[in-house]
Each structure stands twice: as C-alpha cells, then as structure tokens.
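Hey team,

Filing this mostly as a record. A colleague (T.K.) asked me to run one chain through the structure pipeline before their review meeting, and I want the input and output archived in the tracker in case anyone asks later how it was produced. No errors, nothing strange. Just documentation.

Input sequence:
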Amino acid sequence: MESVFGLVGNGFVIVAADTSAVHSILVHKSNEDKIMVLDSHKLVAASGEPGDRVQFTEYIQKNVSLYQFRNGIPLTTAAAANFTRGELATALRKNPYSVNILLAGYDKQTGPSLYYIDYIATLHKVEKGAFGYGSYFSLAMMDRHYHSGMTEQEAIDLVDKCILEIRSRLVVAPPNFVIKIVDKNGAREVAWRESIKDGASFPSA
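Output structure:
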C-alpha cells in the first residue's frame, strides 16, 4: 500500500512518500524514509520490495558519488536518470529489481526536472508522477489542481491534499509521509506529516 508522488514547480521539485515498512499484514515501522538524497541537488524517491528498494537506491547513490569523485563534476539529473534506467535494464535480464523510482533534481543550466523510472526500466521526463496504490488518488488530485509554475507553498498545499485524499480513500492507508524539495539551494527535507508516532505507547487495559 505504498504511496510515492512528486511534481515540478517554479524552480523546484517536490516529492513525498509514505514512511511505512510493511510485510504481508504486519507493519514493522512507521518512520522509514523512502526518499534518498542522491547528492546535493538530487533526490530519489522509491517504492517496491524493501530489500530491492534499499539495495538499489544505495547502489545508485554510491555510483553517482563515485562518478563525481573520479571526474570532479557531478552527473546532471538527466544523466543520473539514464544511468539508473540502464542499471535497471541490465538487471531486468539477469536478476530484476522490483523497484519504481521518481528521480528529482535541479541543474544550473536546465533548472528543475522529474524523471519517472519503473521496474521494467521505462524512463520518462514528467511534470508530475506517482507510484503505488496511493497513485490512484494522488494522480487524480494533481490532474485536478496542478498547473505549471506553482509556487512552493502551492505545491506543499497540493501535496497535503494528496495525502489527505490517500488517508481518507485508501482502505489500508499509510499514516505517515515525508516531504522533500530540491531547488537551486539544494535538496532538503520540508516536513513529516504524521498521524502515528513510531513506538507510541498505549495504555494497558
């Protein structure tokens, strides 16, 4: 019941993801951050099998860092997206990863961009995108309210609308979400939207 979504605004990209780590009918934790900082100006939000998600996103992060270390310049967002797509395509013929990715970044020359990469190595540059069961509701809300050139506050308000819709409409909705933004100042965390604190104590009967 994962929910990962993002959109491009005026000079920034905002991405949000649920923070539930689940297996079958069990919730293991409610504070799992599924949005990794790839480098100073890139974010990768991922959904899928937990092992594949963690292993693959860490693999991409380390290779992006290795490229910058070797060459002295960072990969552009487009180059990082194409590298990620290439690694998924290679693995598809051997040991495929069950992972879907929204890769967000900001480049001085081209500005903000958002790339949609699914588990069968489909790559698209998009203005808005989503993965998981929550995508049915977040995409509907973004289709209704999204417009190009949104301000940061407008984008945060739209993300909150998407979260509210997912919580109210999805039968097993994730309680907590994390929101992050990348712009000319770099990648940063904006907020957590929590309805359940992890490890909360409950009164005994």
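Quick notes for T.K.: The longest strand covers residues 99-107. The CA atoms of residues 137 and 169 lie 8 Å apart.
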